[in-house]
Input
Amino acid sequence: MIHLLLSLAAICSGFVFIAGLLRRKLLDGWVAVYFLTSILTVVTGFLFPFDRLLRSHILGLLSLLVLTIAVFVRVISDLVGVWRVVYVVMCAAALYFNCFAAVVQLFAKIPALTALAPTGTEPPYVAAQSVVFALFVALTYVASKRFGVGLDRTM
Output
């Protein structure tokens, strides 16, 4: 239950954070919530029992990698120049990974969706993941363009 709540908090705070970037604002408080809940989501995901490396673990490791890069860029670059775009792309990638995992869980846990795509390779599942991916490509592109122009820091 804690993992689920952290995941939802990471996704919600991530969208607030991205919305700020779309308005050329760096919402420092929301950024902190997003980073913390995203990292804790991955950490708690590794606490579930497992006997082999799963795709969810690989996704978690990728998420930690892009979050680490984002935090590093945030700390060392003061978000000057091209580092703004790197920051946006890394943060958006981590949020995409969270949303990708959420779609996987929706299709696994909701009987009506499981019936539509029992193996996760059927057209409804592929369509859902494709829409999520397209949404993130568009959001990341627009946020990168807008955030690269100017910056207001607000809480």
Remarks:
- The chain has one domain: 2-150.
- Residues 2-150 form one domain.
- The longest strand covers residues 25-27.
